[in-house]
Amino acid sequence: MPLPPVPGRLFCFGLGFSATALAHRLASAGWHVAGTCRTAEKAAALRARGIEAHVFAPGHPLDPAALTGTTHLLDSVPPTATGDVVLAALTPEILALPDLRWVGYLSTTGVYGNQDGGWVDESAPVQPATERGQARAVAEAQWMALHDAHGLPVHRFRLPGIYGPGRSALDQMRAGTARRVDKKGQMFSRIHIHDLGSAVMASMTAPNPGAIYNVADDHPCPSPEVVAYAAQLLGVEPPPLVPFEQAALSPMATSFYGENKRIANARIKAELGVSLRYPSYREGLDDQLAAERAAGRT
Fold it and tell me: Has the keyword Manganese been applied to this entry (predicted)?
C-alpha cells in the first residue's frame, strides 16, 4: 500500500457512511477533520466523536468560515437534477481557498449506464440510464468545469455498492430485510468501506488532477450469492430465491436491476498502488463476523 497522506485539514461535504469512516481514519493519523451533515443532532454526535461538524441543508447555509484552512476537500452530497448542491452554494468560496491541494468527488458507476454484464473501465463513455446517474454525471461535469477553467485539483471516484459493518448482508440477514432476487445474468460490483477509504487516501498522497478512478473489488457477482454466503456464516437458511418478475421491488430497487455491468479496478492498483484488503465480499463478511465475535457482539 502507498504511504498515508501527510496530515492536513480535510473538509467533507456530507459526513455519511463513507466520509465519516474516512474522517476517523485520518483523524487517528493526526489530521484535522471537519465536514457537514443535515441536522443539529447528527452534528452534535459527530462532534462528540472528534469531528468538527457543521449543519448544511436546505434553509441552513454553511458559514464559509468553516472552510478556513482546508487543504483537502471531499464531496459526497447527493446532487439534484440540476447538479451539485455544494457548488451551487459555495463555488466562489471553494475557488478562493489558498491552501487547497486536492478535491475528491464521490460519484457512481451508474454514470456508465447498462453494459449487459460487460466489464467497464474508466475509458467507457458516460451514458447514464437513470435519473440518479444523470444527476451524478451533471455534477461530475460541473466539478470538471472548475478543473478546466481554474485548475481546481478535482479527482472523481466512481463507486458501486458500498458495504461494511452496519451496512452489509450480515446486517440485512439479522434485520430480516435480506432478499435474494434472481435475474438471469445480472451482475453487481461492490466495494468495502475500508478499501474505498484506502483508495481515496492513496489519491490524496499522489494527486493526479482530472483523474477518474473506479473503486470496486475483484469479484462482481449476483446479489443472491452474497446473501447466501451471509446466511451460511450465520448458520441460518437463506431467504428463498424470488424471480425478478415476481419480486415487487420498489421503483428505486428496480432501477438497479436495469443496469448490468462489472466494474474494472485495474487503475487504482496500477496508478495508486491500492492492494485490496477485501478483494471479494467473502473476506469482508468473514472479517466483520470475526470482529463482532471478538467484541462479544454475537
Answer: no
pLDDT, mean over the chain: 96
On the question of pLDDT at 3 being above 70, the answer is no
For the cut 90, the answer to whether the pLDDT of residue 64 exceeds it is yes
How many CB atoms sit inside 10 A of residue 194's CB? 18
DSSP 8-state symbol, 99: T
Which residue do the cell numbers 493526479 mark? Answer: 208
Q: List the alpha helices (DSSP H) in the chain.
A: 17-28, 40-48, 85-95, 131-150, 169-175, 193-205, 223-234, 251-257, 266-270, 281-294
Percent of the chain with pLDDT over 70: 99
Class of domain 9-222+250-294: alpha beta
φ/ψ (deg, to 5) at 283 = -60, -40
Rg of the chain over Cα atoms, rounded to whole angstroms, equals 19
